Amino acid sequence: MIKIKSTAVVALAAASALVLGACASSTDTTSDNEAGTNTESVSEGTLRFAMGSPGEAQIAVWDQVAAQFETANPGIDVEMNYVDDDLYQTIGLPNLLSGRDAPDVYFEWAGSRLAERYEGGYAADLTSYMTDGVLSGIWEDSTFSSGEYNDKLLLVPHKADVTNVLWYNVDMFNELGITPPETWSELMEVCRVVSEAGFIPMASGNKDFWAAGNWLGHLTSRVVGEDVYDSALAQRTSFNTPEWVEAFGYIKELADNGCVNESANAIADNEGAQLFFQGEAAMHPIGSWLVSWAIGEAPDLNFDYVNLPAMPNGAGDQDSVIGVVTGYVINEKSPMKDKAAEFLALANNAEFVAKFIEAEAVPLALSAANAELDDRTARLNSMLASSNTIVGPPDTDYDLEVADFFYRAVAAVMGGVSTPEEAAAELAAAIE
Amino acid sequence: MKPHKPWVPFLFVAPALTFFIFAVLVPMIATAGFSFTDWNGFGEFSFVGFANYIELASDNIFAKSFTNVFLYILATLVLEVLVGLCLAGLISVQKSGSLWFRVALFAPVMLPMVVVAVLWSFIYNPDFGLVNSVLSAAGLEDWTRIWLGNPDTALWAISLVSGWVFSGFFMVIFYSALQQVPTELSEAARIDGASEWRIFWSVKIPFIRNAIEVGVLLCVTGAFQGFDLFFVLTNGGPFNATEIPTTLLVRTVFRNADVGYGSAMAVVLTLVILIVGWMFLRIRKWNDQKELRT
């Protein structure tokens, strides 16, 4: 089962991070500058790799990459650190980076986090590797743009995830004689029909706030416009404006019409998904990772997706997609940048790209283009690639504390605890 | 006789003292120091004076977290200490055949709290949980609730789980204490015509007062340390209804990477616990003096 996020035992994960951070080994460095890289090459030592746990299937592939790399590079050990996802995203990675044995390569999300890593001195400029070095020719050049900052390529792209679409139960829709909603009014009508039939229109498990928070963030971006969405989350403008009140008003309308399960703010994301898998709910707003998850958990479920319905008089691009590119960064402080780049090149060769696809992860590498993918996954990738506007999720593209305030505000409106006006005012006050 | 070496006692306490300094004293001083900074935990930090404390003074969620923990303490005093005391009273009256009863009530204490929390998250699940299913099956659909998702019920639902776990623990403590009550006292009261209920409250309870005071102290301090149950069941939600200082502190430090502000919270929390402990000692001392006077 692949999950982007999961609730975990903090103590265990924290202990893992500490142990991983404390692992020590020696590095025998020899000066061997390569053209254009301005780094030191080494022939012995430990290449440390850190990422949030991508699930067992992908871990198996990464371990194979590590084994093959070690065989090809005698004297170099590869240490793979798989940290709990939530922990990695928050305090885990910063702890590892500031530790004595910081990772040479680490997973990161494109966006403000990447810029923060660069400003902190933890992201190497990979331009030379990616334009004419070992990492060139593996991806379309356009793929690099998401990992560019200050005219420097910082991120080796690996995957692109659509973080939210509206998944729906095809058989239930057929039985009820309804079609996937493409506009807001159609969505409200679908909610009415599904509710009257005794099912939950949309299931969400929002106890940890990000599940519905990302989806509702996308909704608000369609209403207020992407520029306003970006400037407010980046703390340049206030949330306490009429346009945000209007955007939050649509969330209230969702709640008032019984579109979302009443338990949304009380259950975890996996419990929300289970309502969809078990046929209790007609729709489930979540990301592209649902495909492999649903195939594993509910093999008989006939499901498909539709992008967020167009919002009436919305100021944003009504065909926008919410998504994020993820990949790997080479630590600026690493003495093994060349080897790290070679490792990433190996992980993205045709052999391992095929293995990642088998593990339900579709890399962005060119060699993945001809792979046989699940039809829904292929269409999601195509939708993301062809979209003119990609909206960044609050928790990966913006300050985590601001994202947290935002998620809590939309959850409060969805839960009927705050009015749109109160939520906008309280959110603005919290951020200020 | 060998000459006295004044440094010898220090040699013996050195290991414990070293451990205390590095594991308790240094982190406490460091936390107090961090509370005067704006620091995300890994980068450079800047000194901000009392800014974090000033911000805390107007932080409604922080204030609410203390309200919640005091309500939780009141609930657990009843559900853990009082229920534990009553259970101990019951099994001390009927000793034969009470072994399995005691084992069953004590068993939850042996379960890791995370396991307990996950177990009860299924029981409370509003869509397919045991509580709502039983209520629905009994024709009491109106009584079904989103137990952990409703701000009116979430804190009490968690308190109930806490009571389920720890009432057995306190039962064992009080049962042991009740075993120390001289049988002559009970028999004398019985000869005087006292009922079992009267014997329990007027003879046995005063006799085990010290054990009860320890139980209350454990319950109060345990409530301040509470985290795992809250974290797994609600993570402070819904809408801060179950936010307690520890969950808020962990969120502030580990999710929002605001170590300075979180450290200020930790300092205030420590002070509150110290004040509560001091008040407890004062009340106990006052009671002792009152008893001596009478």
3D architecture notes:
The complex is a heterodimer of chains A (432) and B (294). By secondary structure, chain A is an alpha/beta fold. Chain A has 18 helices and 12 strands. Chain A has 2 domains: 10-154 and 324-384, 3-Layer(aba) Sandwich (D-Maltodextrin-Binding Protein, domain 2), CATH 3.40.190; 165-320 and 391-431, Periplasmic binding protein-like II (D-Maltodextrin-Binding Protein, domain 2). Chain A has helices at residues 10-22, 56-72, 85-98, 112-119, 127-132, 170-176, 184-196, 210-224, 226-233, 242-256, 269-277, 290-297, 337-347, 350-358, 375-386, 394-397, 400-414, 420-431, and strands at 45-52, 76-83, 105-109, 148-149, 152-153, 156-162, 165-169, 200-202, 281-286, 303-306, 321-330, 390-391. In chain A, strands 1, 2, 3, 6, 11 and 12 form a 6-stranded mixed sheet that branches. In chain A, α2 links the parallel β1 and β2. Chain A is globular and about 65 Å long. In chain A, 53% of the residues are buried. The model of chain B has no long low-confidence stretch (mean pLDDT 90). In chain B, strands 1-2 form a two-stranded antiparallel ribbon. Chain B contains 13 helices and 2 strands; from the N terminus they run αββαααααααααααα. Chain B starts with 7 loop residues before the first helix and ends with a helix. The longest helix of chain B is centred in the C-terminal third of the chain and has 35 residues, at 259-293. Helices cover 73% and strands 1% of the residues of chain B. The chains are: A alpha/beta (432), B mainly alpha (294). The interface between A and B is medium-sized, with 32 and 30 residues.
